[in-house]
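Task 17 of the worksheet. Students: predict the tertiary structure of the chain below and write it out as structure tokens. Keep your answer in the requested format; marks are given for formatting as well as content.
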Amino acid sequence: MITIGQQFPKFEKTAVVSLEKGKEFETISSDFLVNDDNVWTVMFWWPKDFTFVCPTEIAEFNKNYGEFRDRETRLIGASTDSEFVHAAWRTHHDDLRDLKFPMLADTSKSLAEELGILEPNEKIAYRATFIIDPTGIVRWVCVNDLSVGRNVKEVLRVLDGLQTDELCPCNWEKGQETLTV
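Model answer:
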């Protein structure tokens, strides 16, 4: 599995970005992750569309979209389902219609495989979350088993800590003192 300190892999994938006719899809590439504007990226993966735990996570990331934006961080959601399945799911699920971030389609499973997050039996992605800095380097990875949803507040807490570029003690939260040596 790709880990902290490594460059996020190169990719070019189709993503659902809207439900507006004719504007549903865009191509997103790894070039999108690297920038001079100090914009971070959180890419989170779920196993399958039209399931039970996955929409709770996606909806929670969406509810916290402003928190990520305030931290100059873009969100990208991803799974190994196709862009057409993503679009259908968004259309038919009340909590997913108004997503403010793209749903990346890794139908070839090549990116999930390169990341090392492909479950070996069903060949679906684990619930993996990557925080990627503006140079394209992975700074945090968290992977949950298929049956357990992640904690979006923890993703924000870790992002806050990484963005301080300082030493953050256990249970540190934004606004608290960091450690001095």
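Marker's comment: The chain has a mean pLDDT of 96. Residues 160 and 174 are 6 Å apart (CA to CA).
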